[in-house]
């Protein structure tokens, strides 16, 4: 595992990383999890501080960053964006310059991907994307880790996303799967198809990795899937679209009938959470034996710790 290429790196989207680099983060995440399970106490964030800048709500992502840092002697400083000057009395660029003089790194969760990019550009310190309208890269590393915990190496496995095919999680899954050789199927109504420009890019990566990318409105496309994944039908910022989405996505709910369409009893269910029982997923599936959502949520911490350690840790 050669971590040198990851030192000082931002994680804005997996588009910027090679398959080998992503696999390196994955291996390191497993090592970090094993160390934690063995109760090994380490101090690899000693002297490090990370600005945790949130423009949108969060439970898991914030907790993962804060606990990962605290466990190893570092400190996350939570900044609700509305309580700062950013974008009101001060430009993003100027605030970023100030963060760059005080912190070791920045985590940003918000609306615009361009804001994550600007924070990286003007701060001069690593920026970790904790979710934007376009991408949720730290989430999908935890998802692939969970897939591997159940089935071994992810290459050649089949992951199906059923739901809003154009959202940040579906897009990020498409990128990471196409880079790592995971067959990725998006089951979504045609008017929620993922952005064709991103699909074309991912098809390019898939040529190199051997992944098969399928976009369809047919739920029987889940046949043979190792994992079925879903997310909320209206993402943060899209609350006004909720009613229309419920109508559109009702046939794509992950329920036992959809799980059974894989034709396999060992298909696992994944969800980035938060979930809405009775909408994106039925209660029997998320609370049932095929669900791995709590392992997946826990893996957010191990992967986020690994991502930060690789970039700013005292290794
Ligand atoms: N999955 C996820 O990002 O959860 P939070 O919104 O709670 O951070
Ligand atoms: N697509 C969801 C993910 C939440 C973790 C959203 O952006 O709200």
Q: Please, could you describe this protein's structure?
A:
- The protein folds into two domains: 3-135 and 300-312, Aspartate/ornithine carbamoyltransferase (Rossmann fold); 139-296, Aspartate/ornithine carbamoyltransferase (Rossmann fold), CATH 3.40.50.
- It is an alpha/beta fold.
- Helix 6 (168-180) links the parallel strand 5 and strand 6.
- The strands form two sheets. A five-stranded parallel β-sheet has the order 7-6-5-8-9.
- The protein contains eleven helices and nine strands.
- The relative contact order is 0.16.
- It has helices at residues 19-37, 60-71, 92-102, 113-123, 137-151, 168-180, 196-209, 242-249, 256-260, 283-286, 293-312, and strands at 49-54, 75-80, 105-109, 127-129, 158-162, 183-187, 213-216, 227-230, 268-271.
- The longest helix has 20 residues, at 293-312.
- The structure holds phosphoric acid mono(formamide)ester and norvaline.
- The site of norvaline (NVA) has 9 residues, from helix 6.
Order of helices and strands: HEHEHEHEHEHEHEEHHEHH
Strand fraction equals 5-15%
Q: Helicity range of the residues?
A: 40-55%
CATH class of the largest domain: Alpha Beta
Summed up, the domain count is: 2
CATH fold-level name of the largest domain: Rossmann fold
Mean pLDDT: 98
CATH architecture of the largest domain: 3-Layer(aba) Sandwich
CATH superfamily of the largest domain: Aspartate/ornithine carbamoyltransferase
Let me know the number of strands.
Answer: 9
Distance between the termini: 13 Å
Tally the helices.
11
Q: List the bound ligands.
A: phosphoric acid mono(formamide)ester, norvaline
Largest sheet: 5 strands, parallel
Structural class: alpha/beta
Oligomer: single chain
Shape: globular
Runs in which pLDDT lies below 50 for 5 or more consecutive residues are none
